[in-house]
Amino acid sequence: MDIALSSPSDADADEFLAAVAASRAFHRPWIEPPDTPDRFADYLERAAGVDRASFLVRDAEVGTLVG
């Protein structure tokens, strides 16, 4: 699979939150990714900081979120 990196945006919220819900059991107790629209908005605000680099990983062929 080829991958593509993209910067997270408001347009990613639904897909991101669905992926978090689907993988919740896998990630806990190690990480707690944003799991509500408000927490995703907070994440986007932090991701926009000049001291941060935040990316979403997508399947380059079909564009779906993979990480």
Description:
By secondary structure, the chain is of the alpha+beta class. It is built from two helices and two strands; from the N terminus they run βααβ.
Features:
39% helix; two-stranded antiparallel ribbon; 12% strand; alpha+beta; single chain; 67 residues
What is the terminal separation in angstroms? Answer: 13 Å
Write down how many β-strands occur, each being a DSSP E stretch of 2 or more residues: 2
Which percent range describes the beta-strand content?
5-15%
Q: Order of strands across the widest beta sheet?
A: 1-2
Q: For the CA atoms, what is the radius of gyration? A: 12 Å
Describe the SSE topology.
Elements: E1 3-6, H1 13-27, H2 37-47, E2 56-59
Antiparallel strand pairs: 1-2
Would you kindly provide a brief summary of this structure?
The chain is α+β, with helices and mostly antiparallel strands and 67 residues long. It has helices at 13-27, 37-47; strands at 3-6, 56-59.
